[in-house]
Amino acid sequence: MSSADPIEAGRLLFAAPCEFIAGAASIESLPGIGAPEIAFAGRSNVGKSSLVNALTGRKTLARVSSKPGHTRQLNFFDLGGRLWLVDLPGYGFAQVSKSMKDAWKDLATAYLRGRPTLRRVCLLIDSRHGVKKTDEETMTNFDKAAIVYQLVLTKVDQIPAAKIPAALEAAAKVAAKHVGAHPEPMATSSETGYGIAELRAAIAAVAAQ
Questions:
Q1: I need a surface site. Which of 7, 101, 201, 202 has the fewest CB within 10 A?
Q2: Does some domain include residue 1?
Q3: Per-residue pLDDT for 151 more than 70?
């Protein structure tokens, strides 16, 4: 495998067997340190579980629901023993109690700040709506916690193709204001596969560092 072919490196990484290994609903139930980790965060119903499924080429690895707030714990997936993917609970408009929202927030914060194997967070942004106030608040919290993250636009199949560059440019302008953000957002569609190979390549490169 040539290091000059990042797309192939990403394809090979994500062609490995991927299995659910743990679901953590509390700080005490977080699994022990293992492989390097890539976490997926974003507003409720932004498409985190769908993106995990698209990246791994599996339709039911991460459970998908149209109801916001479906993911209520940190879900860990082992990708061939080389990388762990972590699906975080969504934030925003989930129809749950404030106490439950606070519990999810505390759990996610504890994980993100205390995980030495965390290489990067993919912060998912719905391309139809752009970066919202709650997204910027999350970015500011990530900055304060010295977390490295990259904006990943989702559902670009639901906007005109001609508008994708403008959506990326708008996201890049927001990212430029945050010290922890990678300067180049990425665009994806779990439905059509748009940008999936490129995101796999980016994740493979980060995991290899």
A1: 7
A2: no
A3: yes
